[in-house]
Amino acid sequence: MTQSGNILTSKDGNVAVVELSRLKKRNALSQGLIDEMIKVLSQLDQDPAVRAVVLTGSQQGPFCAGADLAELATISTTEAFQRGWLKDLNDALEGFRKPIIAAVRGFAVRQHTSTYQD
């Protein structure tokens, strides 16, 4: 098992397990955690031995509590937009060339966005 800040990574054969481990903040997505996830995903995408990834929260906490609201409260909406907050992670997940399975324990809430078109 490898620890990169708030992420634990292990391999079981051709499957990599990426475990969010920011327990004090219930795995809330901070800029630091997002950056770590992007780095780990990039490494796993380039690893020919990895055929799939399981993304999960630690055994002691939730999968992910969502955005780190305390961190977001310190920046403006404009600054969050300019930083590409969450966009870079979304791009990394969408561009990942291998299957990603989310192993979620407990509640899961999906944000739905839609665009109204005439």
Automatic annotation (TrEMBL):
<dbReference type="GO" id="GO:0006635">
    <property type="term" value="P:fatty acid beta-oxidation"/>
</dbReference>
<protein>
    <recommendedName>
        <fullName>Enoyl-CoA hydratase</fullName>
    </recommendedName>
</protein>
<keyword id="KW-0843">Virulence</keyword>
<dbReference type="InterPro" id="IPR029045">
    <property type="entry name" value="ClpP/crotonase-like_dom_sf"/>
</dbReference>
<dbReference type="Pfam" id="PF00378">
    <property type="entry name" value="ECH_1"/>
</dbReference>
<dbReference type="InterPro" id="IPR001753">
    <property type="entry name" value="Enoyl-CoA_hydra/iso"/>
</dbReference>
<dbReference type="GO" id="GO:0003824">
    <property type="term" value="F:catalytic activity"/>
</dbReference>
<comment type="pathway">
    <text>Mycotoxin biosynthesis.</text>
</comment>
<dbReference type="GO" id="GO:0005739">
    <property type="term" value="C:mitochondrion"/>
</dbReference>
